[in-house]
Design a protein that fits this description.
Length: about 375
């Protein structure tokens, strides 16, 4: 059976999603796609604290109808109370949207530590990092929604565009990802704002989040990369390639997903001092262990990259790695695949990998500023 590797970036357009196949390769062995573990806390807090519990409260009005449009309006009201008004909602008896809020609290109770809520930059980063990884890992992009759209269905009221799609159904599109990120951040008293602009000239939604003194871009959809095992099954790869990036990086990347015509829907993002001038240094202090060897997640030379791939080939236990390449003289890494030759030579060091490079197909995902997610499954 022919298996095609492809990165699927799903974006919102005219109330619907469009899927862009960006990279591909030949084959994958059966069973070689282990699930990605969530960004887990091994032992949850015995007495978890949610910052929203100290917020001013707002009572939701009585439920006036039971139609889908009534429910959608109430979901939007819950979102507005928590995200826009920064208040803790008080629900009426049998409120249909209370399960959404309860699930959000349960997720944060499980994964967010009280010690992170000290207002420090490191604490804010840990919260944002955890929410990002949870959403990428636990929510699935609703590809069937596109098929329904092609068949002429009216999908505008589908839960995938809203927070209940993620929190209750675990099915979403970029709108749902971005709204849920805002919702969870608001409960944790983290400043986050939903942004609309374009992805490869198509309308798209992502987020800006404040960590320390700066606002950074976070695109959950773009970090939820998928490759196809066959025509009906997809495996997900957790990435941080679009995590905590500056506007400059978004606009410079070679695929032009966030091009110069992008438009934010709130002018506050253009206020002086709000936007980060540089990406958050996510990879700088991280290490990668392969067998009995340890490598930095920022690879500084082709020789070091070859050492990494050789170690992977020797252990035969690594399925995927995420690293940043930062070689001397590679100054235009956002303008095309500047590391293609070095990567191809490194892949040749692998013994019997599932994925191989061809003139038209690549077994890796390229992200801004030299970040790559490599697949090998030896």
């Amino acid at each position: 059976m022919f298996h095609k590797l492809r990165m699927l970036i799903a974006v919102l357009t005219v109330g619907m999603c469009v899927i862009f196949p960006l990279v591909g390769c030949d084959s994958i062995k059966s069973g070689a796609t282990p699930d990605i573990p969530a960004h887990l806390i091994s032992t949850p807090e015995a007495n978890p604290v949610r910052p929203i519990d100290s917020f001013e409260t707002e009572e939701l009005p009585a439920v006036t109808g039971t139609s889908n449009s009534d429910y959608r309006a109430r979901v939007d009201l819950l979102y507005s109370v928590v995200v826009d008004s920064r208040k803790r909602p008080i629900f009426v008896d049998n409120d249909p949207v209370k399960p959404i809020y309860d699930e959000a609290i349960a997720i944060l109770d499980r994964y967010i530590l009280n010690s992170w809520q000290d207002g420090s930059e490191s604490g804010q980063f840990n919260i944002v990092h955890t929410i990002h990884d949870y959403l990428v890992t636990n929510a699935t992009y609703d590809y069937s929604l596109y098929d329904r759209y092609l068949q002429g269905d009216n999908v505008a009221g589908d839960s995938a565009f809203h927070i209940d799609g993620v929190l209750l159904n675990k099915l979403t599109v970029c709108d749902g990802y971005s709204r849920t990120f805002d919702f969870l951040c608001a409960i944790e008293d983290i400043e986050s704002m939903r942004v609309t602009g374009t992805f490869a000239t198509v309308p798209h939604a992502w987020n800006k989040v404040r960590v320390g003194d700066n606002l950074y871009n976070v695109d959950i959809t773009a970090d939820s990369a998928n490759y196809s095992i066959d025509s009906n099954r997809f495996a997900k790869q957790l990435s941080h390639g679009y995590f905590m990036l500056s506007d400059k990086t978004f606009k410079e990347f070679s695929a032009r997903p966030f091009n110069s015509d992008s438009a934010y829907n709130r002018h506050v993002f253009d206020a002086a001092g709000n936007n980060a001038l540089h990406d958050y240094k996510y990879y700088d202090d991280k290490l990668l262990t392969v067998g009995d060897r340890t490598f930095p997640c920022v690879i500084k030379s082709a020789e070091r990259l070859n050492e990494l791939f050789s170690a992977i080939s020797a252990t035969k236990s690594v399925g995927k790695i995420e690293v940043k390449l930062d070689f001397p003289g590679k100054s235009n890494v956002n303008d095309g695949d500047m590391y293609a030759d070095e990567i191809e030579k490194a892949y040749k060091l692998l013994k019997s990998p599932d994925f191989s490079i061809t003139p038209t197909q690549r077994p890796y995902f390229q992200y801004p500023n030299g970040v790559y997610l490599f697949l090998m499954y030896l």
